[in-house]
Design a protein that fits this description.
By secondary structure, the protein is an all-alpha fold. Helices cover 73% and strands 0% of the residues. It has one domain: MetI-like fold (Orthogonal Bundle).
Length: 292
C-alpha cells in the first residue's frame, strides 16, 4: 500500500471517529438509534417472540384487560392477544416504511439527477410534473392513489412512495445544480468524462448526506401513512396484523376498552419518534457547518 493510500485511509478513519463522537454527544440521537434498533429487532423476530398466533381468536376471553393471566396487553374484540398483534404489526409498519422510502429515493433521485444535470426542456417537464404532485397534500395523494390501486400492503407502499417522490426530486435537483458548477465537475466535463461517470462518481456521491437525512425522516412519515391507509381500509387487509387496523377496530370500543386503542397508538408514536430523533442526529453530524 502506498503512502498516499495509507494517508487516505487514515483520513477516512479519523473522520469516522469524529462523526461517531459528534453523534454520541447528542443523547436524543442515541435514544433514537436505540429505539430504531429495538423496533427493527422486534419486527425481525416477531414470529419467534409472539406468545400467541396473532390471527387466532378466543371468544371466551374477549377484552381481557392488560396484565391479565397469560395476556400481558390484554385481548381484543375477537379474543386475540394484543401483544402478539402489536409485535406482528411492527412487520407491516416497518416493511411499509422502509420499502416505500427506498422506492421513493430511487425514483426521486433519478429524476432529480436528470433535471439538475441536463436542465433545459427536460428540467422543465420534470419540475412542472413535480409541482402538480406537490399541489396535493401528501396523505390526500396517497389515499387517492391507494384507492385507485386497490387495498393491499404492496399497493399502499406504491402509493406512499409515489406521494413522496416530489420531495426527493426537489432536494436532489437543488444539490445537483450547485455541484454541477464545482471545478472538479467542470473539469470532468471538459476532459470528456461520460455523463454516467460524472453523475454517479462526482455528483451523486456528494448528495448522499442530505438524502440520508431526508430518508431517515421520511420513514416515520411512511409508517404513519401506512397506519392511516390501513385505518381507512385501503392498506393492509385482515387478518394480517397492522397497527392501523388495530386502531380502526378499536374506535368502536373506546369507552369499553380505551387501552385497546391506546396501545397501537403508543407503538406508532414511539416508532415515529425514534426515527425522527435519529434523523435529527444524522442531520447534525452530517452538516458540514456543524461544530467539530
Amino acid at each position: 500500500m502506498t503512502t498516499a493510500a495509507i494517508a487516505v485511509d487514515h483520513a477516512r478513519a479519523s473522520r469516522a471517529r469524529r462523526l461517531f463522537r459528534r453523534f454520541a454527544s447528542r443523547p436524543p440521537a442515541v435514544v433514537g438509534l436505540v429505539g430504531v434498533i429495538l423496533v427493527v429487532l422486534i419486527a425481525i423476530f416477531a414470529p419467534l417472540i409472539s406468545p400467541y398466533d396473532p390471527a387466532q381468536g378466543d371468544y371466551n376471553h374477549v377484552f381481557l384487560t392488560p396484565f391479565s393471566a397469560g395476556h400481558v396487553l390484554g385481548t381484543d374484540d375477537l379474543g386475540r392477544d394484543v401483544l402478539s398483534r402489536i409485535l406482528q404489526g411492527s412487520r407491516s409498519s416497518l416493511s411499509a416504511g422502509l420499502a416505500a422510502t427506498l422506492l421513493a429515493v430511487v425514483v426521486g433521485v433519478s429524476f432529480g439527477l436528470l433535471a439538475g444535470y441536463y436542465r433545459g426542456a427536460l428540467d422543465t417537464i420534470i419540475m412542472r410534473a413535480t409541482d402538480v404532485m406537490l399541489a396535493f397534500p401528501f396523505l390526500v395523494l396517497a389515499v387517492g392513489l391507494a384507492a385507485i390501486l386497490g387495498p393491499s400492503l404492496n399497493n399502499a407502499i406504491l402509493a406512499l412512495a409515489i406521494s413522496s417522490v416530489p420531495g426527493y426530486v426537489r432536494i436532489t435537483r437543488a444539490e445537483v445544480l450547485g455541484l454541477r458548477e464545482q471545478d472538479y465537475v467542470q473539469a470532468a466535463i471538459v476532459n470528456g468524462a461520460p455523463d454516467r461517470v460524472i453523475l454517479f462518481r462526482h455528483i451523486l456521491r456528494n448528495c448522499v448526506s442530505p438524502l440520508v437525512v431526508q430518508a431517515s425522516v421520511t420513514i416515520p412519515t411512511m409508517i404513519i401513512g401506512e397506519a392511516a391507509l390501513s385505518f381507512l381500509g385501503i392498506g393492509v387487509q385482515p387478518p394480517t396484523a397492522s397497527w392501523g387496523i388495530m386502531l380502526s377496530s378499536a374506535q368502536g370500543y373506546i369507552s369499553q376498552a380505551p387501552w385497546y386503542a391506546l396501545i397501537p397508538g403508543v407503538a406508532i408514536a414511539i416508532t415515529a419518534l425514534s426515527f425522527n430523533l435519529l434523523g435529527d442526529g444524522l442531520r447534525d453530524i452530517l452538516d458540514p457547518r456543524a461544530t467539530k
